[in-house]
Please model this.
Amino acid sequence: MTGACRTRQGSALLAVLLALVVLGALGGALAHRAIAQGEAASGLARADAARAAADASVVAAWRGWDGVLRAADSVGLVERRTIAADSAVVELTTWHPSPRLWWISAQAWGATGPLGRPSSRAAALGLWLAVDVPMPVAAVTGAAAVTIQPAAHLDGPGGAGAGWTCPLRPLEAADLSASGSLAASTGSVTGPVRIGAGNVCTAWDTAWAALVARADVSLPVDTMLTPMPGTDSTRCAAGWGDPSRSSVAPCGRRFVVVHAAGSLTLSGGQAQGLFLVEGPLVLEAGVRVAGLVVARGPVTLRQGAELVGALIVVGPGAPVRIEDTSRLLGSGCAAGAALRGGTLLTELPVQGWYQLW
Model:
């Protein structure tokens, strides 16, 4: 073989080796790029899973909002709990920074990637009481005469029975706060009486239009009905809630805001929430109502009716009568739940939902 041939063969071999080196480098680069893209895609998937877990936890906390539990929140309270989701671990925080404001936030950590980097996402929802009204300090607050018949009962702090006790400041200033007369010589009043209810009544009367605007149930003039919780298997489908506070009651967390354009008579049944009544209100025949009743006309409890919470009568000259074996049981917890469990508590205006990161 001549020297020229050997030179050509060496050059060809060198070219092949160079090509192999180049192809190897290209293959390595492509493999590295594929790994990086796979890691990026995996990271995005983990981030999406973390974001979905954070969002779902906030939504679930808002849907499961318990007005009775939240009525006990003191200003500044921060509660945290850890939730194990399918693809993430979530820390859920509820914060009550001011009397009318709550924050629900969730931070979720997704699965750890090959490089040891867990994905973290957070979301928050701001809630506020859309109408600013004072909490009553008495089981009955009115501007006219209050009459309690012999077998009837007006009970203040501690009289609400099982299921309606909570650390909220109780109705301790008075069982009855009225500017009119009290006729209860043969009935039962368990606590003190304070005369002078003008400030509370004026505040609620001033806020009346704003409260009515938040109502989710509107009744025509002269309504008579029997409210009952509407359940579908284990789900609360309709109705005005279940004040039994039973752990198995599907409607135990349902609170309504009801506006009656005229007179309202509730005969039997049960309901919980805020009730705004323009005309005379009659509770009779064993009905049980929990929450806060605000009326512009006279109010009568008879035939064993029971009201757990507070009654505010803003109409001048509108008397209150507790007749027969009826009971009015003062409960700051039930009254607070009416405000914090229904449509008065809503997402912050403009933008209530925030993606933190």
Summary: Residues 9-129 form one domain. Helices lie at 3-63, 67-71, 198-206, 208-213, 332-340. Confidence is low (pLDDT under 50) at residues 158-163, 167-175, 177-188, 190-195.
